[in-house]
Amino acid sequence: MLGLNAELCPSTFEENLDRTEFKTFSDYIEATALGKAEEVYQRLSSDGNGDGRQLIVIAADTMVTLGNEIFGKPKDADDAVRMLTKLSGACNRVFTGVVLKHSNGVRQFTDTADVYFGQLTEEQIRSYVDSGDPLDKAGSYGVNGPGGALIPRIDGDFYCVMGLPLHRLCCELNKLFLEDL
């Protein structure tokens, strides 16, 4: 749609920023996404990306909150069970921060979505955790796999919950092409 040739380049940025140093959840996840973007941009730029194409690095970070409690990726299966037990029957908010790093600067934004969990039994939680699906995801769940069956409602962009708010990203890329490049 946008005519991009995309390549997946995982970042080696250490995701260990001190959350207490940031005023808002958005500031924190945008800073983490920026760290990822800058690391990849530096690596790709130094690898001699001199084929005449514009290098644009898109990086994102996602976190889940329930009230003032932050749910990152679970440390282990027990941590995933703990998170899902708290999320059961509740509405949590997903924050996804996105950074577009290019030769003329940086664009960044945060998108949010509210995710409503059904009332989960201990057996449902344990079965889902045992599937392995939630162990690498913020909040210990994913909406695009078996975890989607636990969620009756999402208010906001489904893709924000997946970790990359596609509509907003495309709008920002269009602006980038028109204004900055």
UniProtKB/TrEMBL annotation:
Entries under InterPro entries matching the protein: ITPase-like_fam, Maf-like
Protein's name in the database: Maf-like protein
Keyword RNA-binding found: no
Range of residues in the leader sequence: none
GO-annotated molecular function: nucleoside triphosphate diphosphatase activity
PANTHER family, per database record: BIFUNCTIONAL DTTP/UTP PYROPHOSPHATASE/METHYLTRANSFERASE PROTEIN-RELATED, BIFUNCTIONAL DTTP_UTP PYROPHOSPHATASE_METHYLTRANSFERASE PROTEIN-RELATED
Keywords assigned: Hydrolase
Cofactor(s) listed: a divalent metal cation
Organism (species): Drosophila navojoa
Taxonomy, superkingdom: Eukaryota
